[in-house]
Specification:
By secondary structure, the protein is an alpha/beta fold. Helix content is 51%, strand content 20%. It has one domain (2-168): Nucleotidyltransferase, domain 5. It has 5 helices and 5 strands.
Length: 169
């Protein structure tokens, strides 16, 4: 199963594709990760259009089974929160139009799933993503590592849900 994690942002939108299974050993393979960037000097509508186009091409290329987008939970600066929410909306809508399962997790939920500690720092998350995916180096840039962490969070969450369903059955 392939899960695409998206760390939304208008200037830098991280993405990470992880292969894993909902059953069997808990192993992951980072298939692809990177960022989609747009120039801050461009108009917001053009930047959102560019993001939509590049995400569409990415969805077509990697054909994920599910998409996870970071949920904006708390933001000190509204100037930052609004573009992140707009980018998030683009990603969620594009995945939904394709009929893909879409999940959203906060950064704290991803930190908890990946490191076991919801207040872990970025370096701890990046290190655990590398370890869980069997990578020799920490994924760069940090936005890509965050997106991989979101995809891993999907697997951790769905595995727990599957186990609960099986236990009740």
């Amino acid at each position: 199963m392939f899960v695409l994690g998206i760390d939304p942002g208008l200037t830098r939108c991280g993405f990470g594709l992880v292969e894993g299974s909902l059953h069997g050993p808990e192993s992951f393979r980072a298939v692809r990760a990177g960022v989609i960037e747009s120039a801050a000097s461009e108009a917001v509508e053009r930047r959102l259009g560019q993001l939509a186009g590049e995400l569409t091409a990415l969805f077509d290329e990697v054909a994920p089974d599910a998409v996870v987008v970071e949920r904006v939970f708390f933001q000190r600066n509204a100037k930052t929160a609004i573009p992140v929410a707009q980018a998030s909306g683009v990603a969620v809508a594009l995945a939904s139009v394709r009929g893909l399962e879409v999940r959203q997790f906060t950064a704290q939920e991803a930190k908890l799933a990946v490191t076991g500690y919801g207040a872990a720092d970025k370096l701890q998350v990046q290190g655990m993503v590398a370890r869980l995916c069997g990578l020799r180096a920490i994924p760069q840039p940090p936005d890509a590592a965050d997106a991989l962490a979101l995809a891993i969070t999907y697997f951790a969450t769905r595995r727990t849900e599957v186990r609960l369903i099986e236990a009740v059955s």
